[in-house]
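Notebook, bench 3.
Goal today: get a predicted structure for Anti-sigma-W factor RsiW from Blautia hominis so we can plan the truncation constructs. The sequence was checked against the plasmid map this morning, with no discrepancies at the termini. Length recorded as 106 residues. Pasting the sequence as submitted so the record is complete.
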Amino acid sequence: MNISCEIIKDLLPLYHDGVCSVDSTKAVEEHLEHCESCRDELRAMDSKLPIANRTENLAEAEAVKKLSKRWKKGMIKSVLKGAFFTLVTVIVVLLIIYLFIGIEIA
């Protein structure tokens, strides 16, 4: 069976993860016996990906965490302020009704 390297390279991630069909696995293995380039590609899948700028990424993540904490604190303050002003408004309205209209609250 003569399958092009491009097709095999499309199948290699599935083969590497062990999720190919039996026929695909057989085709990939037959191809790998004769193709050094595809064997190199398969070996490359075993190596870890390099993480560029790791310290910068960690610093950015820390900044996002701090921003998230500040945002949550701000949200809690806003909710408490809203609840306080709503309560004050209700009390003022009830006082006005009680004092000026004379309706008694049971």
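Residues 6 and 63 are 43 Å apart (CA to CA). The chain has a mean pLDDT of 88.
Flagging this for group meeting.
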